[in-house]
Amino acid sequence: MNMSRRHFLTLSCCAAGAALCPAFTASAAAANMNSSEVSRLFQEFGATKRMPPKLDAWLNDPACQKRAPYRAFDNVWQVGLTWVSAWAVDTKEGWVLIDTTHEPFTPFLLENLKTVGIAPENIRYVLMTHGHFDHVGGCNRLKPLLKNARFVMTKKGWEESFRYAEESRGTKNAWIMPEGTTSWPRTESRSPAATTCSPCWKRRGTPGERPPMSIRCATERGAARP
Length: 226
Description:
- The chain is α/β, with parallel strands linked by helices.
- The chain folds into two domains: about 1-65, no CATH class; about 65-225, Metallo-beta-lactamase, Chain A (4-Layer Sandwich), CATH 3.60.15.10.
- It has nine helices and ten strands.
- The chain has helices spanning about 5-20, 30, 35-50, 55-60, 60-65, 105-115, 135, 140-145, 155-165; strands spanning about 70-75, 75-80, 85-90, 95-100, 125, 150-155, 180-185, 200-205, 215-220, 225.
- The chain is globular.
């Protein structure tokens, strides 16, 4: 095949660009899943305790889990993944991050924080709602990067996270929970962030989680936000 020097250089540049900037391409089965099917497969997983292969492929597909950040309302941004969220809240004292997502997708969270314009040193608190890997599995990567942040969760959630991390050892989805996370005592209704950050943060029970917990913030205008 005859190829001009110009065409050869063009193709060479394209090939080099592709090698340096690989694109995430979703598998056909995972890419074709809609919200209803994802919900149905999660219900099947809950009922049978067996992971449907199609759901497993979707959960582990980088192209499916990579999601651009967006402003949910006011000073709150969604910076997490497709299947599990993480929230960044802007306060007068700095940013508060709620949950850490999990590996190997924590870099997507870091990329989303950068896209929003959130510098790692400006994050003051990381509040983790409970000890499941999808909410705290990114803690081990984030902790050394967010040097000015205090990592906080309930005592029960903290113990739960270490138990689950230990149970994951030796599996393909093994993860690590680092030491040094601050326990948020069950007797306290306000987190340590309430004393230094506005808005204030409260925890309250919510059905469906173990331990039952959610975080509620009060905006500076005084309106309650879940």
